[in-house]
Write a structure and sequence with these properties.
By secondary structure, the chain is mainly β. Helices cover 15% and strands 38% of the residues. The chain has 4 helices and 16 strands. The strands form 3 sheets. Strands 3, 4, 5, 6, 10, 11, 12, 15 and 16 form a 9-stranded mixed beta sheet that branches. Residues 137-149 and 226-236 have low confidence and may be disordered.
Length: 248
């Protein structure tokens, strides 16, 4: 009987009163346990890639909630690697004897992101792989400065930024250099403030603190620099960007 229950999907009324009634009728504890296990497996929601209900399991990643009502859906934002950098302000640097700063910019390909939202105050959901504390099923990523392998544990490790759109690319300032020294990483004034709350184990709801104007944006993580020489001694900047667009 237990083997048959395990092999056959079924729905059981297993309220407290019904379990007591089954026991009073002499149904063995092993049979009731098998019924409970089958009911739990049947009730477990199936994983989804686009369900707008955050309670439904989703593969690890960052999602933008799009639409409202029956048209609502989650859109998974695939990461883009920014491994190209450019500099600006070289003429000013030279004319001022190094007092003016050279700006270092991280570049990602294409003028527009694949994922597009219309809400000025969009809502995002970060699903972490609880077993590995990561958005990438255990794949480690480098830190902003030092570069050792670390794992992502919360949205607080990301920076929300806006990109400048060029002909076939998007750029964001990631550092500066002048005679007094250099800075790497996202500047505080370039960060867009956002808030988040943990709605379930491994699941975070994220919202910008203010409306976003139409444009190209991204959650940036894992900035590091390879070897290099000269003014840009840090080498090529590298970052993982979860990019998206807002508005028309």
């Amino acid at each position: 009987m237990i083997a048959k229950i395990k092999a056959t999907p079924g729905q059981f009324d297993l309220s407290t009163d019904q379990i007591i009634a089954l026991k009073q009728q002499g149904v063995p504890s092993g049979v009731i346990a098998a019924m409970l296990a089958t009911a739990s497996a049947t009730a477990a929601p199936a994983a989804s890639i686009d369900s707008p209900d955050w309670r439904v399991p989703h593969p690890a990643g960052i999602y933008l909630l799009k639409g409202e009502g029956a048209a609502a859906a989650m859109a998974r934002i695939d990461p883009t690697t920014a491994n190209q950098a450019k500099t600006g302000g070289m003429l000013g640097y030279m004319m001022t004897g190094g007092l003016a700063s050279i700006k270092m910019k991280s570049v990602i390909p294409n003028a527009h992101a694949r994922i597009h939202g219309t809400a000025a105050r969009p809502e995002f959901y970060f699903y972490f792989d609880e077993a590995n504390s990561s958005l990438s099923h255990g794949a480690n990523t480098g830190s902003f400065i030092a570069g050792p392998a670390v794992t992502i544990t919360s949205p607080n490790e990301f920076s929300l930024i806006r990109f400048d759109v060029k002909a076939n690319r998007r750029e964001a300032r990631v550092g500066s250099f002048n005679i007094a020294g250099s800075k790497t990483g996202i500047m505080d004034k370039d960060r867009i403030a956002f808030s988040y709350d943990r709605v379930a184990p491994g699941v975070f709801r994220v919202r910008p603190d203010a409306d976003l104007t139409p444009g190209e944006y991204g959650f940036l993580y894992s900035m590091s620099a390879g070897s290099g020489s000269g003014l840009y001694a840090g080498g090529v900047m590298s970052a993982r960007v979860y990019d998206f667009a807002i508005g028309g």
